[in-house]
Amino acid sequence: MSDTLRNLLEKKSIEVSAPCRVDMGGTLDIDTFRLPLSYLSPCTFNIALNLRTRVCLLPYRDGMVKISSKGFKDATYPFDQTPFDHSLGLMFAIAAYFRAEGVHISIESSSPPRSALGGSSAAAVALVAAFLTARAQKPLPPKYRHKIALLAHALEEIVAGVPCGRQDQLAAAYGGVNAWHWQSDIEGTIYRKKIVIQPQFHPSLAQHMLLAYCGIPHRSKNINSLWVKQFLSAQYRELWIEVILQTKKFVDAIRRKNYKEAAAAMNKEVAIRRQMTPGVLDSLGEHLVETAIQYNCGARFPGAGGGGCIWALGKIYDIYRLKPLWQKLLSKRKGACLLDVTIDSEGLKA
What is this structure's pTM? Predict the structure, then answer.
């Protein structure tokens, strides 16, 4: 692919973008949980955000791979010596999978680095799509989204060295507001996609939301690893059953646009997570969540928490009252701020 890719990029660069997300019920899409709990029909939920990660493929020196990404130092290595345990190791692994050399991978994200919004998964999805587009030498049809998401997940799981879920990649590939129902069939499709809010209602949903960046990077790998370790040793399994129940209640409430019930289910789910792993929220995150609860809103960390962002959901009037209080809390930490919430309806975009 390398000669063809280099020749193609010398004529025209390739750019692909994919959205980040906020979510509810994450971890249930990890096989460690999905399969033993399949009798309960677990689901997860996410909202794709128009905080897009853009990947651009440019020509570079023969035999070399260069990656530039906001928030990281540029990295350049010979193709056969690219490190997968590097901070940009996932991107190097994707380049290796496609046998791509003589390429400069430029990554730009609208979300803060390591904000727990699934930015690395969005970048992986966009990069896989960019290489497939280069291979096909034409835009990819929508049917490729499934393949792109699962390939990006498989490579991310290998590089991470721990079990990973798939919902981040699916949100990046498909966009929108969806519930992902996880199947036990290991030979067929492992998920069923269910649209929860149709695109024409996305602007209305966004008015019921706040998104705060807490100013420090998240460390989801440590928390996910602890949840997996606990589950394997039979700890808190009854609590994971309750997580499934609250996630289903949340999805049903969102579908009915009952934000009071959705907030209640969100807060119950977060309380369970905090019981299992108290470090899932930092001090600022705790204040944001507790303030949201006081004002009848739900608040949750995206992904596995441990820093990064907190998002809130509630009635428009309650969100309106909560916003200045969150702004005041965030002003006390350098770099912390509210992020604009616009829901992405497109997913992958070339």
Answer: 0.94
